[in-house]
């Protein structure tokens, strides 16, 4: 396509053009009234950056350590399920883009590419995200496969004991396969590039789970029905101790939203906490993660890294998160927009846009390194 994109919103618009309605709204949507989804982005606007002048910023470094990895940016790619819905190069495109930029890539349990296929494709640091299924043997096997495949980190998502109520998916008939209505058929026909590749390059299966799911039972299930059927509602902090004992690599708890849970995660030995509301896709009305950062930072003992996840659309958002005490941020939709827009090239584009914006924000604020980004530069608006 050879198009130049200079902000994330442009990638979003291109993704909108490329994807049929069920796919786009599955990616874009949130739960219920999408209050948290909207708040995640808007919350960043409520913090202003007061720059420091004349600080010699000629030697700029954005380098930092995330989960033991020397990363060129305080940024990781969050786990997102079913990437095949958005582009036929699916998770491979995202993983390769992450490797090219030396950033940590996260693979979702409900990915359309397997744990092993990703580890055979990239050699840069990888994190596997797990949900706890009712069938504990399944989770145990996923952890074993992750170990064997050489992933450096395991991420347990704790905000999805039941599915968030994503009403856009009801409207579009999103499911595997989607429920066809006149409207959705029209939308598929209008997106011929996507449709053509749907027939040529299939690959829509949940690759990590194929040995465990009954295809007849699954057929036509929406993502929400799958979660409500398969995920374990009895999940408690004890299970986390179990996981800690079975996994000796880096352990990340994703979806922590309050100081008490953060302290418990730290006590259990989590190497990092992802302060996240699942991009506004689970509990609607939950706070924007950037607003939960400070109370969580104050409550923990500094033994665990803090990663803020949700609503990052500009490099200045990364700056604000670092200033308020995050060790890094993670992004979901920004790279998915890139994936849907242009495949691997689009993911690289999304990362490059955020990188350039972050660097420019640092320079304009008089900061040469992450250590220079201080809380006193941020004031609530
Ligand atoms: C997600 N997210 C997610 N999280 C997770 O732990 N496991 C998963 O399988 C998924 N799947 C998923 C699919 C899609 C389409 C989206 C948009 C998100 C949540 C994701 O990891 C991350 O928390 C949010 O995307 C962060 O918010 P932003 O960056 O999208 O605003």
Automatic annotation (TrEMBL):
<feature type="binding site">
    <location>
        <position position="129"/>
    </location>
    <ligand>
        <name>FMN</name>
    </ligand>
</feature>
<dbReference type="InterPro" id="IPR008259">
    <property type="entry name" value="FMN_hydac_DH_AS"/>
</dbReference>
<dbReference type="GO" id="GO:0016614">
    <property type="term" value="F:oxidoreductase activity, acting on CH-OH group of donors"/>
</dbReference>
<feature type="binding site">
    <location>
        <begin position="309"/>
        <end position="313"/>
    </location>
    <ligand>
        <name>FMN</name>
    </ligand>
</feature>
<keyword id="KW-0288">FMN</keyword>
<dbReference type="InterPro" id="IPR000262">
    <property type="entry name" value="FMN-dep_DH"/>
</dbReference>
<feature type="binding site">
    <location>
        <position position="281"/>
    </location>
    <ligand>
        <name>glyoxylate</name>
    </ligand>
</feature>
<dbReference type="GO" id="GO:0010181">
    <property type="term" value="F:FMN binding"/>
</dbReference>
<keyword id="KW-0560">Oxidoreductase</keyword>
<feature type="binding site">
    <location>
        <position position="276"/>
    </location>
    <ligand>
        <name>FMN</name>
    </ligand>
</feature>
<feature type="binding site">
    <location>
        <begin position="332"/>
        <end position="333"/>
    </location>
    <ligand>
        <name>FMN</name>
    </ligand>
</feature>
<dbReference type="InterPro" id="IPR013785">
    <property type="entry name" value="Aldolase_TIM"/>
</dbReference>
<dbReference type="InterPro" id="IPR012133">
    <property type="entry name" value="Alpha-hydoxy_acid_DH_FMN"/>
</dbReference>
<feature type="binding site">
    <location>
        <position position="278"/>
    </location>
    <ligand>
        <name>glyoxylate</name>
    </ligand>
</feature>
<dbReference type="InterPro" id="IPR037396">
    <property type="entry name" value="FMN_HAD"/>
</dbReference>
<keyword id="KW-0285">Flavoprotein</keyword>
<dbReference type="Pfam" id="PF01070">
    <property type="entry name" value="FMN_dh"/>
</dbReference>
<comment type="similarity">
    <text>Belongs to the FMN-dependent alpha-hydroxy acid dehydrogenase family.</text>
</comment>
<feature type="binding site">
    <location>
        <position position="157"/>
    </location>
    <ligand>
        <name>FMN</name>
    </ligand>
</feature>
<protein>
    <submittedName>
        <fullName>Alpha-hydroxy acid oxidase</fullName>
        <ecNumber>1.-.-.-</ecNumber>
    </submittedName>
</protein>
<feature type="binding site">
    <location>
        <position position="131"/>
    </location>
    <ligand>
        <name>glyoxylate</name>
    </ligand>
</feature>
<feature type="binding site">
    <location>
        <position position="26"/>
    </location>
    <ligand>
        <name>glyoxylate</name>
    </ligand>
</feature>
<feature type="domain" description="FMN hydroxy acid dehydrogenase">
    <location>
        <begin position="1"/>
        <end position="381"/>
    </location>
</feature>
<feature type="active site" description="Proton acceptor">
    <location>
        <position position="278"/>
    </location>
</feature>
<feature type="binding site">
    <location>
        <begin position="79"/>
        <end position="81"/>
    </location>
    <ligand>
        <name>FMN</name>
    </ligand>
</feature>
<feature type="binding site">
    <location>
        <position position="166"/>
    </location>
    <ligand>
        <name>glyoxylate</name>
    </ligand>
</feature>
<feature type="binding site">
    <location>
        <position position="108"/>
    </location>
    <ligand>
        <name>FMN</name>
    </ligand>
</feature>
<feature type="binding site">
    <location>
        <position position="254"/>
    </location>
    <ligand>
        <name>FMN</name>
    </ligand>
</feature>
